[in-house]
Design a protein that fits this description.
Blueprint (H helix, E strand, L loop, with lengths): L20 H23 L9 H10 L3 H18 L12 H10 L2 H14 L4 E7 L5 E7 L10 E7 L6 H4 L3 H11 L3 H10 L1
Antiparallel strand pairs: 1-2, 1-3
The structure holds manganese (III) ion.
The site of manganese (III) ion has 7 residues, from helix 1.
Length: 199
């Protein structure tokens, strides 16, 4: 495959005041575009050209191809990240399958607290995640830089970008405030549920 920058599924200003148009313009048009462009260069001659994005991400990690771990990983992460947000998102009304897994985990408040804590405690750049582990249970994890849970054999169903480029314009250094606002006001739980169907 050739990586291609997807369109945002909403207008640049749709997520205000929780994420500004300026942040989305830089984050989508500049940062994600750079991962796509660099990823396409690195894909040439890698032997992975015909594979799906998910297969490329897993193979990059297995082969210790650091360039593709970074850039294919970030292309996967951001392609989902735009869909993990929506105007009027967040809140504790969850679709059915997800609600069941959340209750098994210990409830919405525990998921929220653990997810925010994962993002706050990821040292430097990276991501906070909700994943489905190999036993089919919900788990909260975090990964550094461009890595993601696919590389470790789990299915990500929700991820939040905690690189500074995702929040510095709107929140400066206040990563906890960003994570709380993101979880409470932006998460697209229907998209999370749609990934569960595939997990
Ligand atoms: Mn990012």
């Amino acid at each position: 495959m050739t990586f291609k920058l997807p369109e945002l599924p909403y207008a640049y200003d749709a997520l205000q005041p929780y994420m500004s148009a300026e942040t989305l313009q830089f984050h989508h048009d500049k940062h994600h575009q750079a991962y796509v462009d660099t990823g396409n260069k690195l894909l040439q001659g890698s032997g992975l050209e015909g594979k799906s994005l998910e297969e490329i991400v897993k193979a990059a990690y297995a082969n210790k191809n650091q360039g593709l771990i970074n850039n294919a990983g970030q292309h996967y992460n951001h392609t989902h990240f735009w869909n993990w947000m929506k105007k009027g998102g967040g809140g504790n009304k969850l679709p059915g399958k997800l609600e069941k897994l959340v209750q098994e985990y210990g409830g919405y408040d525990k998921v929220r607290a653990d997810f925010i804590n994962a993002g706050v405690t990821q040292f430097g750049s990276g991501w906070a995640w909700l994943i489905i582990n190999s036993e089919g249970k919900l788990e909260v994890t975090k990964t550094p830089n461009g890595e993601n849970p696919l590389m470790y054999g789990s299915q990500p169903i929700l991820g939040c970008d905690v690189w500074e480029h995702s929040y510095y314009i709107d929140y400066r250094n206040a990563r906890p405030k960003y994570l709380e606002a993101w979880f409470d006001n932006l998460v697209n739980w229907e998209y999370v549920e749609s990934l569960l169907e595939k997990a």
